[in-house]
Write a structure and sequence with these properties.
Length: 247
């Protein structure tokens, strides 16, 4: 009894550090006993009963590092996805802009083509109107002595043959009285077989020699007869106006 009491007192008097030290000594002793149980042939046997499972402890720093790594990977993937999306959107915008530009260019080209067609049509209409304005209107003449003289005068003017309405009318009335089919069968020309014919009594050789281009070759045609006679008179007398008798 005295002995046990002394041990309890000693135990209570030991400090905490002393207890820890004693526990360590006990542990070392146990370890020494375990190693001393190793066979002499150096083959190590493990007594499952003596193996203790140690708890694996994870530090908070390790968990933080893993979390940070996963977060970085997710952030990188997100940024990559956003970059791909932005690139696709930019490409779509470029394609849409190109399509809009092409559509605008086609519309402008069509409008330009239409405007050009309208301009050409307007110019063509203007030219047609100008041609119609300057196109000489076919002049008509009465089928009588007045109409024949006026027609002959227009032709004479275009050919540069002198003569006036009065000069033609005066000589016509003296030679044939205005009859385009008149023929002289009694003068020297008739005696010679070439009688004078028509309004201004022209013989066939003179008519052929002084025929005016563009008129009929029929000596009895009023306009052809007048212009040929006026052409002959201009050559011989300067103008039909200067003829006051047989010529």
């Amino acid at each position: 009894m005295l002995k046990n009491t002394n041990i309890r007192r000693l135990s209570r008097s030991l400090t905490r550090h002393q207890k820890v030290a004693m526990a360590g000594v006990a542990t070392l002793g146990a370890a020494a006993l375990a190693f001393s149980a190793v066979p002499s042939n150096a083959e190590t046997t493990t007594n499952e009963a003596t193996v203790s499972t140690a708890k694996v402890e994870y530090g908070s720093n390790q968990i933080k590092d893993v979390k940070a790594s996963v977060t970085d990977q997710l952030a990188g993937a997100s940024l990559k996805a956003e970059a791909i999306k932005a690139k696709a959107e930019a490409k779509a915008k470029q394609q849409a802009a190109a399509a809009a530009a092409a559509k605008k260019a086609a519309a402008e080209a069509a409008a330009k083509k239409q405007a050009e067609a309208a301009r050409q049509a307007k110019e063509a209409a203007s030219r047609a109107a100008q041609r119609a304005a300057i196109k000489p209107v076919a002049k008509t003449y009465a089928n009588n002595l007045d109409g024949w003289i006026r027609n002959a005068l227009d032709i004479m003017q275009s050919k540069g043959i002198p003569g006036s309405y009065n000069g033609l009318y005066r000589n016509i009335m003296r030679e044939s009285s205005g009859n385009p089919n008149a023929i002289n069968d009694w003068d020297i020309n008739a005696i010679n077989g070439i009688p004078s014919k028509g309004l201004l009594q022209v013989i066939p050789p003179t008519f052929s020699a002084y025929h005016v281009a563009g008129t009929s070759w029929n000596i009895y045609d009023p306009v052809a007869n007048i212009t040929a006679a006026a052409n002959y008179a201009a050559d011989k007398y300067g103008s039909i106006d200067n003829v006051n008798s047989a010529y």
